[in-house]
Amino acid sequence: MSDECCGPAVPGGAGAATGDSEVEELAPWWRDRALALPLAAGVLWVTGLLLEQAGLGTVALIAYAIGLAAGAWTFAPGAVRRLVTGRGQGRLGVGLLMTIAATGAVLLGHVGEAAALAFLFSIAEALEDRAMDRARHGLRALLSLIPETALIAGPDGDRQIAATEVRRGDVLLVGAGERVSTDGVVASGHSWLDTSAITGESIPVDVAPGDAVSAGSVNTSGALRVTATADGRDNSLTHMVRLVEQAHAEKGERARLADRIARPLVPLVLLAALLVAAFGFVVGDPQTWVERALVVLVAASPCALAIAVPVTVISAIGSASKFGVIIKSGAAFEQLGTIRTVAFDKTGTLTRNEPRVVATAAADDHTDAEVLAMAAALEATSRHPLATAVVASSPDHPGASDVHEHAGHGVSGLVQGRRVRVGSPRWVEPQSLADRADEMADEGMSIVVVEADGRACGLIGIRDELRAEAAEAVSALHEQGVSTLMLTGDNSRTAHAIAQEAGIRDVYADTLPQDKAEHIRRSMDRTPTAMIGDGINDAPALASATVGIAMGASGSAAAVESADVAFTGHDLRLLPLALAHARRGRTIMTQNVILSVALIVVLFPMALFGVLGLAAVVLVHEVAEVIVIANGLRATRARRPTVPPRGPGVPASTSSTRPVKAGNR
C-alpha cells in the first residue's frame, strides 16, 4: 500500500486520504452506476413477463432481449476475456457458466429464461461489490484519528508541520484535547490519555515520563512532550489500516458456494457439448447433433442453481433485518452459517462502556456515604470518566474550594474545612485499607482512594459492568456447540474477571489491534471464526475474521464498515439467534444446491441421448425452479429469542455481581 493511503485526513474532507486526490464518497444505492444495469435488467425482465402474459409476444421479446443485454454486460465480457487470456482465479466460474447457459437458451429461442439468469446473477454480483466498496470507505474513519498537523519542538523554537512529515526522534508538543500524531514515548509531563479508539480501554490511562503512547490517542488533560518512535506515515494506526485492507483483499478471494460447484462443472459441460457436436460431423448428421448439443447446454444450465442461492439469501437476510441483524452480503450469510468459534471484544461489547461505582469501603470512623460525598465534592470539577461515576453516586454532595486537578493522579481541595485528596492508589496511599484495596483490584475494580487530612478514610470501587444479557448469550452459544474467547486491550486481571462472569474461558488480554487480528487468523486455522466488536481498534480483527460482526448501535464507523454483519441494537442475545438463523438458511441453501445439481446430473444424459427434447427439458427446469423458490422462501422464518431484545429506554438488569475493572486513574 502506498504512503498516500496511510496519511491523515486532508483539509476540507474529514477522513479523506492524503494524496493528490481525495477519496470519493460512496454514492447512495439509487445513484450507484454499478447497480444501474442490473436494476434495469430486472425491470425489463419483469416488463417482458407482463407483456407476454398480455399476449404481446413481440414486444415482450424486445424487452427480454434488452434486459438480457443489460444484465449480461456486467459479467459476460469479463468471463469471456478471462477465458481467452487465461487470467483470473474465477475464469471457469459461475460467470462463464451463466454466459454459456444464456447463449444456449437464446439459440434455442428461450430469451426470457436467459434474461432471468442475467438479471439474477448481475444483481448478486453488484451487491457483493458494493459491500466491499463500503468496507474500503470505512478505512477513512481510521485515518481521521490522525491529526492534520503536529507541533514540533526544535532548537529554533516550536514549529507546526503536517503530521505525515513527523520523523522518528522529533519531540511532539501535545496539549489538552489534542490527538497524538504518531507513536512515541512521554518525555515530560503528566496526563491521562483516552486510548479507547486504539486499545478499546473505556477509561483514560495515566501517563508519565517513560510511558509509551499510540498514534490517535487523545490527551485529555495536561501538556505532554512526546518523543516520536515512528514516522508519521508508518505508525500503529497506519499499520491498522494496512491490516484491514489486506484482510478485505484476502476475504474477497474466497470462493463462494456456487463458484466451488461451477468450476469443475463448467469444463465438463463445455467438453461434453463440443464432443456431442463433433460426433454429429463424424456420423454425418451435424444438424441433429449440434441441436442436441445445445439442448445439453440448456439441460446443464444452472437455472435452478442461479436461483437456489439468491432466493434463500435474500429471504434470510430480509428476515434477519426484522430482528435487528443486518447481513451485508450473500457471501457473509453463507459464512455466518459455518461459524464454530466466536471471539468477543470486551469494552462496549460484553460490557456497557459506562463506568459506575459498585463498591465502597470506609475506615472505621467514616461511613460509605461520607466517603462518596467527599469524593464527589472534588470530582464535580473534573471531566474524567471516573469522576463522572463518583458524582453520579452522590448527587447531594457538599461544595468544595481550592480545588486542584493533578494530571494523571487525581484532585485535591478543601471540603467542609478538611484537606481532601482523591486519586489512584499510586498517588494516595490506602494505608490501613491496603488489603481491601488489593481485594477490590483482584475483583477487577478501578480503585479511587479518598484521603482526609492525611488519613485514608475510604475506597471507591468503579467498574464497567457486564451487559445483563451477556452471560445468557454466551451460554446459548455453548449450547449450540460454538466455542467462545475474549480479545481485549485491557489488563489480564480485568479481562479474566469479566470473562469468568460471562462464562468465557479463553482470554487474550493486553492485545493491540494487530494482535487481535493475529489471534483471529490463528483461530480460523482451526475453525470458522466470527469476531464481534464495536471499536475502531476492532476493525482489523473484524475484517480478518470469517465473519466480522459489529455492534451497530454504538459501534464506530470503521467497525461497522469493516464488518460483514451489524447489529442495529446492542443485545448480545441476537448473536446465537443470528447464527442459528444462518445455519438454517445454509441448510436450505444446500438443499437447493443439491436439488439443482441433481437436476443437471439427471437431465444431462437424457438430453445427450435424445430421451428428452427441448420442450421437456425446459419444463423440468421450470418445475425445479418453482420448487427451489418455494424451499428458499422458508428461510424467511426465523426463531425469535425466548426473551425479546430490550428496546431503547428499557433499563437493563443490574444483577451482575462480579466487578469489572476498567482501568486505574
Report on the structure:
With 665 residues, the protein is α+β, with helices and mostly antiparallel strands. The protein has a domain at 323-351 and 467-580: Rossmann fold, CATH 3.40.50. 48% of the residues lie in helices and 17% in strands. The chain has 23 helices and 22 strands. A 7-stranded mixed β-sheet has the order 10-22-21-20-11-18-19, sandwiched between helices. β16 and β17 (455-466) form a beta hairpin. α9 runs antiparallel to α10 and α14 packs across α15 (385-393). The relative contact order is 0.11.
Main attributes of the structure:
23 helices; 22 strands; single chain; Rossmann fold; 665 residues; 6-stranded antiparallel sheet; elongated; 7-stranded mixed sheet; alpha+beta; disordered N terminus; disordered C terminus
Topology of helices and strands:
Elements (H helix, E strand, L loop, with lengths): L32 H21 L3 H16 L3 H10 L8 H14 L3 H27 L1 H5 L5 E5 L5 E4 L8 E4 L9 E5 L2 E4 L1 H4 L5 E3 L4 E2 L4 E2 L4 E5 L7 H17 L4 H27 L2 H14 L3 H20 L2 E3 L2 H7 L4 E5 H5 E12 L5 H12 L5 H9 L7 E6 L3 E6 L2 E6 L10 H9 L3 E7 L2 E12 L3 H10 L3 E5 L4 H11 L3 E3 L4 H14 L2 E5 L5 H6 L2 E5 L5 H6 L2 E3 L6 H35 L5 H19 L33
Parallel strand pairs: 11-18, 11-20, 18-19, 20-21, 21-22
Antiparallel strand pairs: 1-2, 1-3, 3-9, 4-7, 4-9, 5-6, 5-8, 10-22, 12-17, 13-14, 14-15, 15-16, 16-17
